[in-house]
Design goal:
- It is a single chain.
- The protein is mainly beta.
- The chain folds into 2 domains: 1-37, no CATH class; 38-511, Methylamine Dehydrogenase, Chain H (7 Propeller), CATH 2.130.10.
- The protein contains 3 helices and 36 strands.
- A 5-stranded antiparallel sheet has the order 1-24-22-21-20, with no helix packed on it. Strands 2-29-30-31-32 form a 5-stranded mixed sheet, with no helix packed on it. The protein has a 5-stranded antiparallel sheet with strand order 4-5-6-7-36, with no helix packed on it.
- A hairpin with a 3-residue loop joins β8 and β9.
- α1 (8-20) packs antiparallel against α2 (23-37).
- The longest helix is centred in the first third of the chain and has 15 residues, at 23-37.
- The model is unreliable at 1-38 and 464-530 (pLDDT under 50).
Length: 530
């Protein structure tokens, strides 16, 4: 246990108890100290664990990936931007390029490709209308909203029916709405195809985002029974493969890597699709599993996750990092094995420190992890040694992202903490957006895109103070918080192949209902940068 971050008053009182207590009291007080500081647990290292020096530059692979944020957590699902100049200090009235109201509710993250930003949302009371929304990245102008289907099945209050982020290759946009199906749209919002993945029954709903590989779109479809992972042809929706999973639920998103192959298996390299965790009905440990993304065949597995897994696996420096549970384990795994490699390819492991929901970030040879209670820790990515730990205010659901030597951590109450990526904790800024935030931000073109409970924000480095009016008005009236779909989109869900798309350019303004999602949303009026 680490006691170095215990608040002074708590520490003084506990030490006083230690001096006066008998053996039992000593044990209890020590335990209390550990809980107050965050308990690191035991760290087990293999001979392959090697401490790495902190670096001050991005890797060559990260530099290749710059420019877009094409899906959940950006390029390679890493949560890293190579932009050199990112915002540090900002707030509702400063540093904001634009701010638009987002209709409906949802926790999917912004996805950026070129000059487009995509989000999903659920409109109205259950069964909600599930929609894909598009904005112009440079101006915040609302472009179109496309109806997909009605929501189906149960979901947790902090999850909802629009939690999975879309994935895009610039031409097609892939959106997963759990029991309502997997949908594909073109860049104008026209629906091209839809595939049902079954009822996917689970009281907490689904949240895994689509993954693109070559000409395939791959979707994790875990539920209480009959879980699977499936691949479809991107252009047609044709099923390519389906692999059953012995899992009662998993909310992470698969990650693609290119891994060296064991010499016994012929050497060279291969693609692996990593899924962090399998749910278990009896609370027994789950597995990290690697699949062949072309065939769906299982390649290897490692036992050791908790029975409920939300974080996405992190890949960096030739290792895969698995986190799970409330203060659960963190595993560093060497890819490229075959069969059950629990005893042979775990490079290091901590028994505690893993988050329940947020995904951490591996950045510049350091592994940064924030748990749901706000304990932020920095580990050496090579051998797992904890370098520092600090408690932040608030609860956390949003995952960490990084760029320009900074770590961004967003609390549920809208505090954006900017921390220096270094071996000594340094808070660069605490920014308050003053609105509930569960979604993970995106970074692209030197800007931070944040989805809060009611708005989408574009935050930049070189923006002067905004006008005093938080949200500019559009045609004399603000957009309702819960806009309804036009009447023609509010009917029974369309059959496969119907686009369900309405754009402002498609109809004269007079024919658009006042609450149609195709109306341009209000934007924040911001003076030009000096």
């Amino acid at each position: 246990m680490s006691l170095d971050r215990t608040p002074p008053v708590v520490a003084q009182r506990a030490v006083g108890s230690l001096r006066r207590a008998d053996g039992l009291r000593v044990v209890c007080a020590a335990l209390f100290l550990g809980l107050a500081a965050g308990c690191e647990g035991s760290l087990n290292k293999s001979p392959q664990a090697v401490a790495l020096p902190v670096t001050s530059s991005d890797s060559a692979q990260e530099a290749i990936d710059q420019g877009q944020w094409p899906g959940w957590r950006g390029p390679r699902s890493a949560g890293i931007s190579t932009d050199k100049d990112l915002p540090v200090a900002f707030g509702p009235q400063s540093g904001v390029r634009w701010k638009v109201e987002v209709p409906g509710v949802g926790n999917s993250s912004p996805v950026v490709w070129g000059d487009r930003i995509y989000l999903t949302s659920a409109l109205g009371a259950a069964p909600s209308r599930l929609v894909l929304l598009a904005w112009d990245r440079t101006t915040g102008k609302y472009l179109w909203g496309t109806d997909a289907a009605a929501s189906a099945g149960a979901s947790h209050d902090k999850n909802g029916h629009a939690s999975a982020s879309v994935a895009t290759n610039g031409r097609l946009i892939f959106a997963f709405f759990g029991p309502s199906g997997l949908f594909v749209f073109d860049e104008s919002g026209r629906q091209l195809w839809r595939q049902s993945l079954g009822q996917l029954e689970h009281g907490w709903g689904t949240a895994s985002s689509p993954v693109l590989f070559e000409d395939l779109v791959i979707q994790l479809a875990d539920c209480k029974a009959d879980s699977s992972i499936r691949a479809f042809r991107q252009s047609t929706g044709e099923p390519v493969w389906s692999t059953p999973r012995q899992s009662t639920g998993c909310w992470s998103t698969p990650v693609l890597i290119q891994a060296p192959r064991d010499a016994a298996a012929g050497g060279g390299s291969r693609h692996e699709l990593i899924v962090n965790g399998t749910g278990t009905a009896d609370g027994s440990p789950g597995y990290v599993i690697a699949y062949d993304p072309r065939t769906g065949q299982e390649l290897w597995r490692v036992r050791g996750t908790t029975d409920i897994v939300c974080p996405t696996a992190i890949v960096a420096g030739g290792l895969i990092y698995s986190m799970s549970g409330r203060n659960g384990p963190i595993l560093a795994i060497q890819p490229g094995g075959a069969g059950d490699v629990t005893e042979s390819r775990v490079v290091w492991k901590t028994t505690r420190g893993g988050p329940y929901v947020p995904t951490g970030v591996a950045y510049r040879n350091r592994l940064y992890v924030v748990n749901d209670g706000g304990v932020l820790a920095c580990h050496n990515a090579g051998d797992g040694t904890r370098i520092w730990q600090q408690r932040l205010r608030g609860a956390f659901t949003s995952s960490l992202v990084a760029g320009a030597g900074q770590i961004y951590a967003l609390s549920e109450r809208g505090d954006v903490y900017v921390i220096k990526a270094a071996d000594e904790f340094q808070m660069l800024a605490e920014n308050d957006l003053n609105e509930r935030t569960l979604a993970t931000p995106a970074i692209a073109h030197g800007e931070l895109y944040v989805r809060t409970e009611g708005f989408l924000w574009c935050i930049g480095s070189h923006v002067v103070a905004a006008t005093s009016t938080p949200v500019a008005q559009h045609d004399g009236a603000t957009l309702p918080t819960e806009p309804s779909l036009p009447e023609e989109l509010s009917a029974t869900p369309r059959s496969r192949g119907f686009s369900g798309s309405i754009r402002a350019a498609d109809l004269p303004p007079a024919e658009l209902p006042a609450t149609a999602i195709s109306l341009e949303t209000p934007r924040l009026a911001v003076p030009a940068a000096e």
